[in-house]
Prior knowledge:
The complex is a heterodimer. Chain A is of the alpha+beta class. Helix content of chain A is 48%, strand content 14%. In chain A, a hairpin with a 2-residue loop joins strand 2 (21-27) and strand 3. The longest helix of chain A is centred in the N-terminal third of the chain and has 29 residues, at 91-119. The model of chain B has no long low-confidence stretch (mean pLDDT 87). In chain B, strands 1-4-3-2 form a four-stranded mixed beta sheet, covered by helices on one side. A two-stranded parallel ribbon of chain B has the order 5-6. In chain B, 17% of the residues lie in helices and 33% in strands. Chain B is built from two helices and six strands; from the N terminus they run βαββββαβ. Chain B is globular, with a radius of gyration of 14 Å. Chain B has a single domain (2-91), classed as 2-Layer Sandwich (Beta Polymerase, domain 2). The N and C termini of chain B lie far apart (30 Å). Chain B is an alpha/beta fold. The interface between A and B is medium-sized, with 36 and 31 residues.
Amino acid sequence: MGRQYEIPIGAQHISLLEPLHFKFTTENEKIVATEANVYYVHRGIEQACCSKFKFRQVSFVVGRVCGLCSISHTTAYSQVAEKLLKIEIPLRAKYLRMLVIELDRIHSHLLCLSHVAENSGFEALFMKTMQYREFSMELLEAVCGNRIQYDFSIVGGVARDLKPQVAQSILERLKKFIPQLDELMDIYKNNWTLSLKNKGAGAITKEDAMRLNVVGPFARAAGLAIDVRNETEDLLPWKEVGFEMITETSGDVYARNMVRLRELYVSIRIIENIINGLPESALITETKAFPDGEATVRLEAPRGELFYYAKGNKTQILERLKIKAPTFSNVAAMAEAFTGNEYGSAPAIIASYDPCLSCTAR
Amino acid sequence: MNKVMTSIENLKKDIGDFYKPGLHHFMVMNAVEVGDQIEVQWFFSDYAHPCDTTCFYTLVRPETEIPSIKDIVASAWVAEAELVDLMNIKVENTQKGFVLEPDFESGPLRKKK
């Protein structure tokens, strides 16, 4: 047995995008134990939503939980509020919600891939991936009015319609993006040195993913077929617009890259189908009711299952709002998946988890 | 949502009888204040019937210690640690200081009396 060292990473570290802290116990460069601390930014958003804001305003507040997946939060909250109000939203609003969720998934997956490349030592690939990602940010701005934190989903429907020229622009730019995505797929899949770094790194098995209740691309890369889009036809008709479950088997950083890249093709198909079959209807269902009872909603954010619980009491202010972000479900597995890996692989492994602490600590 | 009432005494047995790692997915724990009691909730979904959400719940006094289900659901320690800090409830073998700093006042999500 070699001499053991304890090495901390974070809360602020050059390889971290988020304020999280890992303490690695290493032995001859191998990580033998990990301690994780993920909470540095608790903002009391749930408390604010149940005390300072009326239930219709809350969709704008939860959009600030996360800059990367705010559409997932606003949509999940709107859905749980609509359950409490017992209203059905117009079909066009459902399609537009799915459109923005998939555009958001494209920019989020590309961001994660770029950081995996950067933390693996591939700075040029990082910049290329970020360059190709830019179109999705511009499209989100064209559809929603903001590059991030778009207040698109509101209680009862959506806040804006899709203009025909914006719809045309989305189709044209997706067409241009496909060869760029093919190029990225070729590099992430076949580059020998990148594969050498990513294959086998931070791997978990399907059994461990089940045991630790992992969600999102982290779970699907290990072969666990869990994707809320496959499961919530009652709220958004994902299968109608071409959803397909993507899984890999090796559960390592390489497999997570492959899952995200393959999911981008699915997102493109979904967006094209939505635009080509966008139904005509109103954008919002009006109601004067107040939320009553309790309800839950699950939604597939880019990082995995997002869960909202809400309880109403027939007043403007909610009794309780609970948010469970995808990263929260992955914390237990994040700590375990380091064990047995080289310390030098830790930054790429962390990036491949795609952790979002802003969501988790909220 | 299928709500199943349980009690502190039967919690581990009820969840132990229900939960199968290959069949069920543990999502999160939650706590809601109901008068001067707290309703503690454990949420599960089903891989085979994914739209089904099962919620085990029990009503307890705020000072009651809740049994930990870590030995049944390996990842539950994260949810338990969160509730200890944010709702100021007691969970077996769980210390405060995971979500908030250890010297921070516990229970910021509890209603102000």
